Amino acid sequence: MSLGDEHGHGDPARSGTDAYGGGQTRTRLPDPYGGARRGARSSSRGLVAVVAVVVLLIAAIAFANRGGGGSSAADSPGKAGGAKAAATAPTGKQPVTTRTAGLPSGFAHDQQGAQSAAANYSVALGSAEMFTTETRHRIVNTVYAPDVAARRQADLDEAYTNAKFLSSIGLGKNGAAPAGQTFVSRVVPVGTKITSLSGDRASVEVWYTSLFGLSGQASTNPVSESWYTTTYQLTWVDNDWKITDFQQKDGPVPVGRDQRASTADDMTKAVEEYGGFTYAR
Asked: pTM (2 decimals)?
């Protein structure tokens, strides 16, 4: 999930942020709400929206190799046939019934399976479980191709345990939320689109909204939403789709309605009572 300047949307004059304090990568921070948003937001909410970019892209610092393995434009259903988005609908195919390390697995070797894998993997990679060493290792080893996971696990550990980074989002050095607060990091896919499929390689776009922040009375980083589209490069390995690389961009972002923000207690209750989805398409 690259943190390089290719994600530098917005005014290039805005200051860059070294996400991990190591100097190896810098991110140009976009205006998280844009000109179409309603009145001014507090600086803490703006910070949380920006931090969400870092959190949802953090895995990409591990990827040194870019762009390989995609099929040609002629193989792209969206370009070649001008296909429209296909809504989720009954297909006669059974959803996956198997799990690997607690995550859905065994996706079909077709367009639907690739889209489903990408949607589910985005949920796992954007979850709060990525901030705990044991569950992060489980997720990484499950959703990435084996050679990618093996090469990059140490890089991910370094990123997710960086004290400066964790402090900036209000977490302790072990990734734990302060007493009386609940850490929220959740991805909700809105739609998927397959952009290429050729043999054992696929490229899938996932459009989603992200909830990120700390809920609780004393929180200075309240839960806020952001919108992104991530393009996943997938390969067919060991009878399943696995991630080899991905890139993220902002939006499409809907215009916010003038709804009153929920109280910290209501947000905490919702997060605790509503489980996230584990299967899509």
From this structure: 0.68
Q: Is 192 exposed, middle or buried (0-12, 13-18, 19+ CB in 10 A)?
A: buried
**What secondary structure letter does DSSP report for 195?**
E
- Give the separation between CA 111 and CA 192, rounded to whole angstroms: 11
Query: Residue 72 burial (CB < 10 Å; 0-12/13-18/19+)?
Result: exposed
Q: Which residue has the tokens 């809105």?
A: 190
> How far is 277 from 159, CA to CA, in rounded Å?
26
Q: Look up tokens 């046939």; give the residue.
A: 81
Using CA atoms, how far apart are residues 108 and 115, in angstroms rounded to an integer? 10
CA 232/CA 66 separation, integer angstroms: 12
Q: Biggest alpha carbon distance in the chain? A: 54
Q: Go through 7-26 and write b for each residue having 16 or more CB atoms within 10 A of its CB, e for each that does not.
A: bebeeeeeeebebbeeeebe
Calpha distance 251→254 (Å, rounded):
8
Q: In the numeric block, which tokens belong to residue 21?
A: 């304090």
Closest CA to 18 of 61, 66, 56, 64: 61
Helix, strand, coil percent values for the chain (each to nearest 5): 30, 25, 45
Tell me: the pLDDT tens digits for 85-125? 555 555 556 668 889 998 999 999 999 999 999 999 999 99
According to CATH, the superfamily of the domain at 5-273 is: VirB8 protein (3.10.450.230)
DSSP code per residue over 13-32? TSPEE-TTSSSS--EEPP-S
